[in-house]
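Progress report, Aim 2. The chain analyzed during this reporting quarter is listed below.
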Amino acid sequence: MFNFDFYNPTRIFFGKDRYDVIDKNIPSDAKVLITYGGGSAKKSGLIDKVKAALGSRKVYEFGGIEPNPHYETLLKTAEIVRNENIDFILAVGGGSVIDGTKFISLATYYNGDATDLLKFGFAPITSEVVKKVVPFGAVLTLPATGSEMNNGAVISYNHGKFPVMSALAFPKFSILDPTITFTLPKIQVANGVVDAFVHTTEQYITFPVDAKIQDRIAEGILQTLVEIGPTTVAEPENYDARANLVWSATMALNGIIGAGVPQDWATHMIGHELTALLGIDHGQTLAIILPALLEVRREQKRAKLLQYAERVWHITNGSEDEKIDLAIKKTREFFESLGIKTHLSEYGVEADKIQVIVEQLKAHGMTALSETQDITLDVSKKILEKAF
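Predicted structure tokens for the chain:
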């Protein structure tokens, strides 16, 4: 197991009707900005419930944070926070709203061009760079990204998607009420299942470092998602299934299973380009790329692929290659059981787009991906061709 530092200060409030904790966890004299997305939180009455919980505090609202939140929108919001001297931001939404709120928190008082904050990649932005942040919390409406309990965000800018990481960007608290998610469209739930699943595999299907606890927790998350994924898509008001999805998505990316182990993230980096260029949903891009990547990288990932086959899919018969083949096949079938297509061609993408995607990877510096930095542009092209 590698050396690691683990830090996660986010307080989680899980379960039905937890709005009372808002009043207890935001200063009574704070000016509060509620951020949200396309309007469903408003129409459903959720924003009204949040405002009621805020009591007599001065409350402002900003709606319209996009899926794959846009830098320009977030900068406008940061200006409002600065001009109105907002003390606390409350993000009401899924990963995009929470990601966007993290960037607003970092950018509001950054002394410089805020595009600088998009240039750090996976290197953490420290207090030496951003000297003052605006504290924030979250009310989660879509289980998928784990943004409610981590310090990362992905921001869209100029046809690219940029990771932003900072220990300054943990939510102070997050409310996880599975019942809030009951009205989500089935495709969004399915995308969330895939996102949580691939977050886990990016930290698990790499190479062995004898991190037994991390492996077992990761395998538990994957087995849970396989068990409840189709159920929670088909039965949106099945509380137990949805509660397990919500907590699985949070656990998949709150730092625990990634502590002390190699991490890949090539599926995400390639998938980001599909979203930015072609507008394919993030979860769908992961379902397209992961099976193809596992096939192309089967030798580099052989030991962990065999562990994945045996422990997650309970495949015990056959040769090593047969076990790996069946594990990849079952992974693809699982995604498809959720109603998600797993080939680029099924999204109306023409084969000539593959080279365009590769050029975008090059333009964004994604030329040495994976846990061993040996996914070159040529390898990315092979993955995309296998995914076609």
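The domain at 185-387 is CATH 1.20.1090.10 (Dehydroquinate synthase-like, alpha domain). The chain is about 45% helix and 10% strand. These observations will guide the mutagenesis work planned for the next reporting period.
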